[in-house]
Design a protein that fits this description.
It contains six helices and 48 strands. With 810 residues, it is mainly beta. It has one domain: Beta Barrel (Maltoporin, Chain A), CATH 2.40.170.20. The strands form ten sheets. It has a 22-stranded antiparallel beta barrel. The protein has a five-stranded mixed sheet with strand order 3-9-10-7-8. A hairpin with a 4-residue loop joins strand 11 and strand 12. The protein is globular.
Length: 810
Amino acid sequence: MNTLQARIAFGARARGVRTALLCGAALGSFAAMPGIAHAQDADTAQTASEERVIIVQARRQNETLQEVPVTVTAIGGETLTRYNVDQVADITSRVPTLNVQVGGSGSGGQLSLRGVGSSNISAAFDSAVALEYDGVVVSTMRLVQAGFFDVEQIDVLRGPQSLFFGKSATAGVLSLRSANPTPEWEIGMRASYEFEEKGYLLAGYISGPISDTLGVRVAAQFNDIDEFQKLQPGTPAVNQERGLTDLIIRTTLDWQPSDRFSANLKVQYTKNENDGAIGTAEINCGANGIADPVFLLGGALQIPAGYNCNTRDQRYFLPDAAPQLAPGVPTPSRAAGRNGVPFGETELWFGRLQFDLDLSDTLKLTSVTGLLNLDAVDFDCYAYAGVFPGGIPGGAGCSDPINKLEQYTQELRLTSDFDGPFNFMLGAFYEDRTFIFDTAQQGVNISFLGRDPVTGFTYDWDKIHTTKTEALSFFGSAMIALTDRLELSGGVRWTDEKKVQTIAVPYVHTFLQGPAFVRPGFFSGPINFKDDNVSPEVTLKYQATDDLNFFASYKTGFKSGGIDNSALPSNSLSQAALTGDFSALIFQSEKAEGGEVGFKSQWAGRSFTLNATAYYYVFKDLQVQNFNAQTIQFVTSNAGELTTKGVDLEARWRTPVDGLNLSANLSWLDTEYTADFLQPGGQGGPVNLRGRRGSQAPEWAGNLAVDWAIPLSNSLELFLSGNANYNDGYITDETSFNDYVQPSFWTIDTNVSIGHPDGKWKLSLIGTNITDKIFVITTGGRPFLSPTGDDFVMTQNRGRQIFAEVSFKF
């Protein structure tokens, strides 16, 4: 804590607030509020006489899904286990318009919802779809990359959620709640083998009461995949199949010493290892239909690309580093001594301490303290191509980005529970975050002419971006029952966010030293960004009957800007160094404003649920980052204005057939750039995208799920399940009017299980994407293209997965 406190520089007002928040954290050292241990699973099969109750925390308190005036899709832990879902990307088949990209050396992933998201390239961006993990909004998508397990429920909140979630939730929130200790001792184990990627998974937990007041849950999962990626025959690489492993261990302590005080502590360790940072990326050979060579040193060196232009065979061409580039890495670096063979290593510690203290019968104080520590390094070659005669590796554009993150957050909430018509919530939030991005890169690949004669290094430069963020916000909301059936609620959040970045370039290859590059030892000094915002929200809810609710909301959102960490010593950074003006590296804050109307209803004895929402939002200064393949430079900009509108429908039916349940979602979405958006990353020069549809925004998307539990005897049950997901296609990039369009597609998931009705044992055969449908998530220019080249990178989904699984619980 002393190190963190030493970095705080908000002045007297901020210091006073910080003291109050840290006092809340000190109280939290005694205890923390337990999670929703008794929240019912959204997808558990029930008898016809039972009523399904789904608990969500869309407004930071326990409310039923049907009563809360927020558009939420809830996915229960039973469904996640049923389909072997342990990656965020796998839930897209249940949430229309949710798009997830996993991988990349920057942020590590991307979430988009209703056509709005943030770049997976730059870790300088906060995510427009906030990722909340056990009550803590985390700033890194590496948690998306690492996966999850032992989850109680996932809630996807659509639309701006700045009032209750604060940081960056301009497009929505993806909230994961892990399982908590059980009231009785319980042990669960699960083992599966996946036939397509040749991977196995082992998971288990032990949970129960240590005493009358203290419960514990220890859970762990290990996943080892041999063939996450198969390389194209003839790819010059040591690893012809790229694999990965994930280890996750979590301990939860739940303490309830009295009726007025309860506490919950979660500590999680995640370790991910893989054979390279590049995910499932194919190369499209463009209109000319040929594999364009790797164009280096102004055309003096052109390396044959090597890939076969087949983007549907799930065979990736990812060569190791060329011998001229592989040996010398600026030290210290874990890439040293690996001879140019790609790899990735991530270690992540996450801790959350939450407590509830009843100050009186009507007032409750909640404290949530979050700590996150990330240490990640990877090495890969981002030419996505290159093979010399004789099958010698020709990988160029290699880099070894080291990402280090320390994040501390503290939130305090005071909530009332009066018997009268008025209730309120007051809160404060503080974040202190330090992110270090240290990478040696080959942007010119000068060592094809010769390694550095002074150091022996083969990299062009090493640069270090250190970004410190300090955010402070206060929020307040009120709920007023105007009548027995009419409720007015709303509030406002004030946010003040400050970012300071320094850029150091300790090394530049001797052959590159000159006026076109920054000098070795360059240091930028502090580059400052600061912004504040007021985000109001108001909602009117009318309960027409016990089973029919109408609501209308006005909402706003805010996501702070910052300083780009993609500047290269040869381009934007060298220009800034000459003038001393670093303003070109600063991107502005993103804001959203609009509203939605909807209803939530249940019919036929609450056996049938129908919910609908219509929305309209305008996003100003949308933060966008693309890649210019000719200049080998990431381009960061703010889109002038993106307008989104649409309708979301959700239906669930507990049929008269015992154990048979149906559910469906359908979304219509229309997005358009409605103001000038001069995109500097377009081929051939800037392009104004005004009037063009937004990217990753299907006009129609939906799914239909069927779950049927068939009793065979008192101790035996057959379970059949299926989910069909439809997407009618979308634009995958945002650099021109001719970007690639992913055509419409279907994916189908299935499950056949037999076991004990109480889950004491179960055998399952699980199929994910059983038709092996491959679709494109995002696209971008392939680096090191010639001036006439047109190849581009297509990031795709994983293909079919078939699991055989056995599980026990006792």
